[in-house]
Each structure stands twice: as C-alpha cells, then as structure tokens.
Amino acid sequence: CVLCGRTDDCPEKYGEKRTCVEYNLTVHYYCLLMSSGIWQRGEEDEGLYGFLITDIRKEVNRAAKLKCNICKKKGASIGCVAPRCKRSYHFPCGLQRQCIFQFMENFRSYCWEHRPVQMFTDKEAGGASQCTICLDLVEHLPVYPVLKSPCCKNAWFHRECLQYQALSAGIFFFRCTVCNNKDKFQKEMLRMGIHIPERDASWELEENAYQDLLHCYQHCDVKRCLCKKGRDYNEPDSKWEIKRCQYCGSRGTHFACSSLKSWEQNWECVECRSIFAKSGKYSKQKKRALATSEKTNGTTRLLEEPSPKSPRQSSGSPCNFLLQSPKIMCQNLSPCSHRELPASNRMTVSLSPVMSNRNWSLRYKHLRQQRREVRNILKELKAQVKRKTTRLNINAENIWSSALKGFRQRIFSPTNTLEVNFSNCKNRSKTSTTAASKYHFFQLLMLHLQNSSLFEGSSGKNLSLDSQAVKENLYFEAGRMIAVSLIHGGPSPGFFSKTLFNCLVHGPENVKPALEDVADVDVVRTIKTIERANNLSSLQSTVQDYCEFLAAAGCLRPVTALCDKNMLVNDLLIHHVIKRITLPLESFRQGLKTLGILEKIQMHPDVFSSILCHKPERLSAETVCDLFTIHSSSDVNKVEGDDFWMGYLQDVESGESVVTLEDILLFVTGSCYIPSIGFDPEPTIKFLHIGYPIGNRLLNCLELPITKTYQEFKNKMELTIRRVERE
C-alpha cells in the first residue's frame, strides 16, 4: 500500500486492497478513507473508490514528510483531529495503538490519548457478563476492546465481535442483538470506531441463496406408491399429479395413491392429522375417509407413516419386534407381561399396520440381508488395513479442500489406520474419541460429494461433466474417497443412480439410460419434444428446429419414418448420460479400485446396490435393538432390564422422549449412523448396579443401571444422554 507501506491483504482490518495497474498504485480502502489531506472529488467509478489518481499522489507526497509517532517511519498520512494534537500515524499502526477511526461524516481520527470513551456508572464497572455475540465473558471495564450498548443496560460486547458482525450485517441489518434497536445503536458504534459498510447483508448478496424456497415439494410419501415411474414423478392434470398437504405443504401424494378424485379435494398428511386429532378439531368423517389402510380396486393401500418434522423425534414405525429380537431370548417375557408389573413400570407396545404388511416386510428384510452380506465382504477387505496410522487434519468448514489435501499428502496410504483431527474445532478433542471424529469426517465428506458438482441429478445421481475437475483428477479422488470411506467406517453413499451403478458393474457400453438420468432441463425438453411427434412431418420439423443441437451431440440423422424417433431419442440419451462422461467415468472407476472395492462390486452387484443406490435405512427401535448384544450378570433380573431397555427404545422412536435414537447411538459409539462395515467391536449392553448409564466408545459398550421402576430408568437415560450431548 502506497500510504501505509504494508503488503497485508486483510479486508476485515484494512479494507479491500486494490491495485491500479495503469498507474502502478496499490492502496488499502481504509488507509485512503482516513488520510487527512485527501477528499473524494470524483465519481465512484473514477480513480480508486472515487479518489482521483492525482489527489492520491499528492497525498503520498504530503505523507512522505511526516513521521509516524508509533513506528517512527515516514508516510504517516493520518492525524489526530483533537486541537493542538500533532500526532500522525499509519492506519495499521493506529489500530495497533488502539486509536479510533470514525467511518462517518468527515472520517475523523483520534489518537490513543484523545479518543472518545463510553461513560460507566460505579455499579456497572468491575462486573462481568456474556458478550451477546460470541457468548464468552466480557469484563465491564472502560477499555478499548470492550463496548456497551447505548440502548440496553445489560448488553456488553467485544469490539472485535461487533466489528465482524457489522461487516457481515451491513447498514440495513446491524442493530443491537438484545433489543433490536438500530438508530441509537448504530450512532454510538460509529462514534466508537465501528465501521458499518453501506451495503446489504452478506447473506443477502449470495447468489441463489434462497433458491430452495422457490421449489415446490413434489414427492409421493405414501408407504406404497403406485406410480411405476417413481415417487418424484409428477404429471399435471392426471392421476399422477402430486397433491401437497393442505396444512404443512411439506408432504405429498399422487392422486391415485390416495384415491383423490379432484384437485379441490383436500388431503392432509398423517402427522398433521394426528395433531388435529389430539386437538379435537379433526372430524370423525375425515378419519374414516383417510384411514390408515384402505381398499382400492381390491388392493390394500398403506398410507405414509408419520415423518420426523420435529428434530427431536426419531423416525420408524412401532412393531412387535420387542418380543422377537434375535439377539435377546427372554423366555418369560410375553405380550401381556407388562400388565403384571406395577403401574409405574408399565409400557405400551403397539403394533403398526405398516410393519405388518407382508410384501413391504419381505423387501425390508431382503435389503437388510444384503447389507449384512456387504458388511462381511467389507470386513474381509479391511484385513489389508495396517496398524500404522496416518493423521488427517480436517477443517469442517472446508471439508472438501482439507480432505483432498489429506488424501494427496505423500505419506497417505489407504491401508493405514486413519486418525482425524478437526483443526478448527478446539473442543472436539475433549469430548470426542478418535473414532467419533473419523465417523463425523466421513459423514460430512459423503454429504459434500453427494451435493458436489461432480454429480448431477435429484435423488439417484450420475456423474456430471466438469472439465476443470477432469484436469485436476477430482473424479479419481472422489472414487478413492468413497472406497476408503466404506472400509474405514464411513456411511453408505446411497446416492448412485441405477445407470451409474450399472456402468460400474457391466461397463458403459452395456447400459441403456433413461430420460430420468438426464439432469439438463433443456435436453429433457428437447427429448420430450421429439417423443411427442405423432407423425413424420412433425418429427422432421422438430429435427430441423434442433438441427444444431443434434449435430453438436453427434446424433443428427436422416428421418424417413416415424419410428426413427426412437433411435434418435436413444442416441441422445446415450450421448448425454454415457458418452459425454467417458473420461470422468473411467477416472471414477480407477478411484473405486482402491482397496479392491470395485472388484467386489462387480462380483456382488446385487448386495452392493443396497448401499450404493439406496439411502441408509433410518434408525428404528428394531434396528438399534438388533445392533446390541445384551450381557448381564447372574444377580440381575435380565427380563426386567431388557423390558426397560426395549420399552425405552419404543418411547424414543414414537417421540415420547427428549432424545433420539441417533443420540443413543452417538452416546455409545461416537457415530450417529451405522457404518457400512459395521462397528468394531460390535456394540454390547451390560446391566450393572451403577447410578447412571455409561457409554464406553472405545469398546462400544453401553452400561445400564438397574432400577426399580421404568420411569426412573427413563429419567436417568435422558439426563445422562442430554448432558453428554450438550458437552
């Protein structure tokens, strides 16, 4: 900077750093604003920020004669405005010496001796309270780093916190965090040297920041969707049009799937119905019309199960698994055994009609069986992993860059045991084990990959074409990260489309893509236009209209019959879904060969599709129950202990608890999901004579207290898990 002589580029401290190449001038914005001998005489687009180049040169020459009272170097362009004070300094030096710069009116500057101060009463001085921005303690002292609110007696701030908030919020949203006062608060902060930029808030300037709010929910949530084209298929003015819940709008159903006859007919999701039912405002007539199971054309149709809109409610359906768990053999436990207990010990176990459906149950069991087979295959591959460790330093706010840097470091090897350290989370090491950090890392990484520009599509994703990613070999790294994640305890990816999966298994030359695989809206529109041609002349006209498009795709062909449109559509699909991404696909396949994953996928395609093409199953009481093996000593009433544990899982699943099933899993293992490879060691439960439950994450062991009543057991569980969660 020609005014302060520093090369620092820190917009938060010194403002934007700009260079005028034509005149070989570089300045910090704040240095320019605060210089005493220069005025903004030009328009905003003239010179630098409206300061003319000739004026800047004159100011540089003037400052060259003045020595900074702080660093003792020449070039001090800022002077204290207090009468008879002759101190001059550079802007960075003034910040260091705690001078105050007022970013308003004439942009006055005050040295450390004459700077304005806030008045404190005797009662206010000497105490301490929380900064209402960062929530750390701030002492009530009349010093430079501390500021108090002019409108709230109990609002205190760190100066640095206020400055960062002002830069983010801008002049329209910067206000007192306690009472929301704007005018009085901004006036005092400007007086005390807080810069409030005259622009909109940073979150308002993000491109497409609120784009998601413009999308209407279009997904069929009934338990058995009848549409052969999938739950996301929506065809207006037909029986496959999606109708949204009239109350929440966040759940939907096809007309045919819920027997709706017209658009005027109202439809409510199960959760909204249950809320109205509890409030007594839901009529019996509606309850009969929208029963949980109905007969439609002789076929039993099952409505959707309640969805977890509340973040504290676990998903899943109550069922009779408590009496049939394969890992727990309780000979004396019967469906009526809880009635024989005291009233405080009773727990209600309800049977869900959804879980009793035979077809759905068979598919569910088949999927779980496949995932068990995958688990065994992955455990075989894990034998390659050595005890030698490699540490990955991860920044959770920039997960992709830090993961990429870790995977590309010279000492990284997929066969080494991985240790993950979150460098930007100071307290994580105090509360999390190495395994917990690794679980969290792979969860964030898979989520980033799913939403990255390397893939395209809505639910089932295909590879996209990103030329820059091809140059940087990012598709290879993505494949390698997924392979490493599967072996080292990451979650199931679950977002591959069937087309992408088949390309990996059978090769792209043996795969026939569908229209749902095309993510480009314009291409979809073009293909649909060609498909709608109902005679030869309209088809030829359409081909003529899209001549350049078809030629660029290499699909332009003579059309002599109406049946030629099928070949044309097929060529377009193959080009956009397969041929276009030949290089990314090959690179991705090479990455998946890491640790032998791709070879196993090709040998066992059916079982691997369960984790690559299907989202991980939501935790249910049955899943968590089956996950644990129960051990108990001879002096423990095993039946009663099991009864309390399984009843508690039911309460958590049905939303009758302040914790979730994910909280319980996290408490024991350090992970809120079940890894594709499973837990090592396998989770166990012990019933002991202890005061409160203990989660041993090193052994994946949950030690449960023996209590006299179920309510006492539930209270202890929730108190302990919530305390650990807060920590």
TrEMBL record:
GO terms for molecular function: ligase activity; ubiquitin-protein transferase activity; zinc ion binding. Residues 288-318 are annotated as: Disordered. It is found in: Nucleus. Keywords: Coiled coil, Ligase, Metal-binding, Nucleus, Transferase, Ubl conjugation pathway, Zinc, Zinc-finger. Residues 364-391 form a coiled coil. Residues 1-115 form the PHD-type domain. SUPFAM superfamilies: FYVE/PHD zinc finger, Hect, E3 ligase catalytic domain. CDD domains: ePHD_PHF7_G2E3_like (cd15669), PHD_PHF7_G2E3_like (cd15496). It holds the Pfam family PHD_G2E3. This is G2E3 ligase. Pathway: Protein modification; protein ubiquitination. Transmembrane segments: none annotated. One of its GO terms (cellular component) is nucleus. PANTHER family: G2_M PHASE-SPECIFIC E3 UBIQUITIN-PROTEIN LIGASE, PHD FINGER PROTEIN. It comes from Elachura formosa. InterPro entries: EPHD, HECT_dom, Hect_E3_ubiquitin_ligase, PHD-type_Zinc_Finger, PHD_PHF7/G2E3-like, PHF7/G2E3_ePHD, Znf_FYVE_PHD, Znf_PHD. The keyword Nucleotide-binding does not apply.
